[in-house]
C-alpha cells in the first residue's frame, strides 16, 4: 500500500495534522496504536452522563483551539464559575491573581493567609532586588526561589505547575514553561510588573479558559469525521513498529510482529509521545531520536465521582470551581475540580439524572508508587481528602478512574535547546515532521499549532 502522507498518532496533534492535510486534498492515512483516537481528550459515562475524563478545558486567549472547534461545528463555552481555592495550612484559601502561581497582587496574597508572616515579609523585599541574570535557562522554582522565596514556589507555583505539567517546579524550564516570567525577571521586579499587568479591580473581556458543550472529548470524534469526509483514512489498533527511508519517501512497518504490513509514503508526520517518536526516528533521524529519548514524562490519574444531589446539599450550593493542593501539604490528591459548578452543561446534564459530578487528579512527576494503587484505592484516597477539605462524607453513586501513563512530557531545564536540536535533525530528512505536546507547549492550542507547523513542513 502507498499513501501520499501517513500521520502516526491519533491524539489532537495527529488529528489536526490529518485534518489540515485532508482539507488540502492530500491522500492521508492516520495510524493510531490504541483502540480509540483522541489521546488525552477522552469522555466516559459516569452515572448516566458522558463527561470528560481527560483534558476538560483549553486556553481561550490563544485562538488555535477555539477556532478549530468552531470550524468543525462545535459550541465553545466558558466556565460558569472560575473561583478556585488553594487547600493549604488547614483551610481552603482564595487563590490570588498570579502568573503560573507567581503573585500579581500583594494585597490579595496577604489577605489569603497562604503565606506565614516571615514568608510574606520575604516577598515584600522583592522590589529591592536587581534584575535577574538568567543565562541560558533556569528552572521555574529556582527563579521564584531567588526573587520571592521558596515558600512562594512550594505553596503557589507548585500547585499550578502540577496541574499543567504534572511536574516539579524546580525541574521545569522557565524559558520553555513560563517565558513571560523570565522576561519580567530580566527587566526587574516581578511584583511591580505584576501590579501593572493585573491591576486591582481590572476586568477582562476574554475568559482565560474555554470548553465545549458535551466536553473536550467531543473534539476528536468530530475531527475524525471531518478527516474521513474529506477523503482521509483513520485506522486504530495500528502500531507502527518501524520507520525507514524508501528511496525519496518512507517505508513503515505496521501491525503485530506475526503479521507485519508494509506501507510506503511520500511524507510522514510523527504525532506520538517522546518515547515512541524517539524509537521511530532511530533509523531516519538518529540524532533527533537520541535527543527525544531524554525527555521524561509524568503519569497521572483522573478520578471522577458522581454524588446524588440530595446527599450533598452544601456542595451543590458551592460558589467555587474547585481547589489546588501544594505537594508540601502531604495530601494524596493534587487538585479537585467541581465539574458541576465549573461547567453549566455538566450541571444541567447531571441534574436531569439527579447527580453532581466532580473529579480529582493524582500524580506528579516521580509519584509512580502512588499510581500503582488499584482503582478502588485511588477512589478511597480521593474521598478521604475531599472529606477533610470540604466535609464531603457521602458515598458516590458512581466512579471512574482514568489513568494517563506517561501522559505529560516534562520540559526540563534546557528544553528549548533540545527541541531546536530535534527539529534541526528532522529538517535534514525531506518529507518528515514531528509534532505534539513534547515541543512547544502541552496545552491544546500549542499542540494544534505544533501540528500546523508540521503540516507546513511536509507541504513545502
UniProtKB/TrEMBL annotation:
<protein>
    <recommendedName>
        <fullName>Coproporphyrinogen III oxidase</fullName>
        <ecNumber>1.3.3.15</ecNumber>
    </recommendedName>
</protein>
<keyword id="KW-0274">FAD</keyword>
<dbReference type="GO" id="GO:0004729">
    <property type="term" value="F:oxygen-dependent protoporphyrinogen oxidase activity"/>
</dbReference>
<feature type="domain" description="Amine oxidase">
    <location>
        <begin position="12"/>
        <end position="458"/>
    </location>
</feature>
<comment type="function">
    <text>Involved in coproporphyrin-dependent heme b biosynthesis. Catalyzes the oxidation of coproporphyrinogen III to coproporphyrin III.</text>
</comment>
<dbReference type="InterPro" id="IPR050464">
    <property type="entry name" value="Zeta_carotene_desat/Oxidored"/>
</dbReference>
<dbReference type="GO" id="GO:0005737">
    <property type="term" value="C:cytoplasm"/>
</dbReference>
<dbReference type="GO" id="GO:0006783">
    <property type="term" value="P:heme biosynthetic process"/>
</dbReference>
<keyword id="KW-0560">Oxidoreductase</keyword>
<dbReference type="InterPro" id="IPR004572">
    <property type="entry name" value="Protoporphyrinogen_oxidase"/>
</dbReference>
<dbReference type="InterPro" id="IPR002937">
    <property type="entry name" value="Amino_oxidase"/>
</dbReference>
<comment type="similarity">
    <text>Belongs to the protoporphyrinogen/coproporphyrinogen oxidase family. Coproporphyrinogen III oxidase subfamily.</text>
</comment>
<dbReference type="InterPro" id="IPR036188">
    <property type="entry name" value="FAD/NAD-bd_sf"/>
</dbReference>
<keyword id="KW-0285">Flavoprotein</keyword>
<keyword id="KW-0350">Heme biosynthesis</keyword>
<comment type="pathway">
    <text>Porphyrin-containing compound metabolism; protoheme biosynthesis.</text>
</comment>
<dbReference type="Pfam" id="PF01593">
    <property type="entry name" value="Amino_oxidase"/>
</dbReference>
<keyword id="KW-0963">Cytoplasm</keyword>
